[in-house]
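Technical annex B. To support the medicinal chemistry partners, we prepared a structural model of the target in complex with manganese (II) ion, based solely on the information shown next.
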Amino acid sequence: MTSPTLQHSISTITDNIAKQGYAVIEQFLNPQEIACLATHAKFLQNAGEMHKATTGITKVENPTLRGDFIHWIDASDASEAEIDYLNLMSELQQAINQAFFLGLFEFESHFAIYPPGAGYQKHLDQFIGKSERKISSILYLNDDWKAEDGGQLRMYLDENDTTRFIDITPQAGKMVVFLSSDFLHEVLPANRERMSITGWFRARSLNS
Ligand code: OGA
Ligand code: MN
């Protein structure tokens, strides 16, 4: 059963995607739910289950491009907190499909931990020549994030004008959702460790 708060968040997301291609929800999950996910991220880190992220289809490690460590969420082997997260994202997927007929049929997601000083240079979330990733989502897990901690998500609103962007602080509970093909974005380096879950809703590939 979907709570009224979640329903409200979900309709804010679909409304804003329709209007501007992206949405920022300040409190998508409550502090308790975020704490469970953050604890799980730290558990994975301590267990050696977070691995250096790679980029592109060829999966090369490129620390100058991105400096985070990731762990892919596996539904068949998920913790309670991960299952709750996947269920929420499945509700969001249904709502987006109803609103936009995107034919989303799959969701992939990973935890990400950026050590202090690490970032992710300006990029698009689609591999060149591949368009299965339709919608990107990022949920932040960092308590008491201050502007001076850095680590903002910088989203470029116009690909031809690098001065038009918004900076989003990675505060716990905040969720950002955007059309994967439309927004160049980057992660600015932070002064402290930065944790999140990134996810992508995918459509069926034409060539697979
Ligand atoms: C990504 C990404 C942004 C963020 O993982 O592709 O752009 O704010 N993350 O963590
Ligand atoms: Mn990205």
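Notes passed to the chemistry partners:
Residues 112, 120, 125, 138, 153, 170, 185, 187, 196, 198 surround N-oxalylglycine (ligand 1) (CB under 6 Å).
The chain has three helices and 13 strands.
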